[in-house]
Design brief:
single chain; alpha/beta; TIM Barrel; globular
Length: 302
């Protein structure tokens, strides 16, 4: 077996999500100290902040905790509902500013932006229609452009919008419509390979077609058998995760080797952050998976 081609433009990391962390504070989640200890032990150099408030929000304290473990932050994350129009801007900006300030203080350069859910991920309640009106699409795209401009001007960060299951930016059609309707100078994409596969998309095709818009990667795989049942029964995303729809690589789809190779061919430096959704999970489960996943990614050249 020949050695894989080194993926020297890909910076691999992990995130609280791979430790079952979805909320700032939840008794079913591992304490933040344990997450930091274990993500370093598993061999990752880069992490995301996760839900704001899970890791320490005092920049000095956070910097000390990261330095002790030789960890560096790649991005912060925010949730937005900009399709609702200008009325939500002030509240959105207050939340974004909080996260962006901490993200900048860590030295990171990216802010991952996730659209709001149309279906509650716990109760399955339908919160809004899954399809936006033309007016809502205009609010969404113009709002994201405004957000990209303001975040860059104020905090020096680039926003990368994350297509996500049970949001209005999910399927191939929705992702392409969003990209075709936004300015690449202001808005680019965080391609999550698992969410895109969950919604029927082809990550390699997207990278090859819209390469200049790929600003960041989340690495994740879907179990096709579980996904088929989830789709057939219209299971919301949260319960789907509890059924194991997001699985440990390399057992699911898409194949991550070809995705990483396609990303390498873009010729730009890209973060590729492992996110294996598994909230809630037993506290001893994440570390062995993280170790195996890091080993697997090294076998791919990353």
């Amino acid at each position: 077996m020949t050695d894989p081609t080194p993926l020297d433009r890909i910076r691999v990391g992990s995130a609280p999500d791979s430790w079952g962390v979805w909320f700032p504070d939840d008794p079913r989640q591992v304490p933040w100290e344990r997450f930091l200890d274990e993500v370093a032990e598993a061999g990752y150099d880069w992490i995301e902040l996760g839900p704001y408030g899970y890791l320490p929000t005092d920049p000095g304290r956070l910097a000390g905790e990261l330095a002790r473990r030789d960890l560096t932050v790649s991005a912060g994350t925010v949730f937005t509902g900009l399709h609702r129009g200008p009325a939500v801007w002030d509240d959105t900006w207050a939340h974004v500013s909080q996260v962006a300030a901490l993200t900048r203080a860590t030295g990171a350069r990216h802010l991952v932006v996730i659209p709001s859910f149309w279906r509650d991920d716990k109760t399955a309640e339908i919160l809004e229609p899954p399809e936006l009106t033309a007016e809502q699409w205009a609010h969404l795209t113009k709002g994201m452009e405004r957000l990209g401009h303001e975040v860059r001007e104020t905090y020096g960060l680039d926003i990368v919008v994350h297509p996500h299951a049970d949001t209005h930016i999910d399927t191939e059609d929705h992702v392409e419509r969003f990209l075709d309707s936004t300015d690449s100078e202001l808005v680019n994409l965080c391609l999550d390979t698992g969410h895109y596969a969950y919604c029927g998309g082809d990550s390699v095709k997207l990278i090859e077609t819209y390469g200049e818009r790929i600003g960041y990667l989340h690495l994740k795989q879907v179990d096709p058998a579980v996904l088929a049942e989830v789709v057939a029964r219209e299971v919301p995303f949260g319960p789907a995760v509890q059924r194991g729809v997001m699985c440990e690589p390399p057992s699911g789809v898409p194949e991550l080797g070809p995705v990483l190779q396609a990303a390498q061919r873009l010729g730009v430096d890209l973060f590729a952050i492992v996110e294996q959704d598994m909230y809630p999970c037993e506290p001893d489960r994440p570390l062995p998976i993280a170790v195996r996943t890091r080993r697997f990614l090294r076998s791919c050249g990353a």
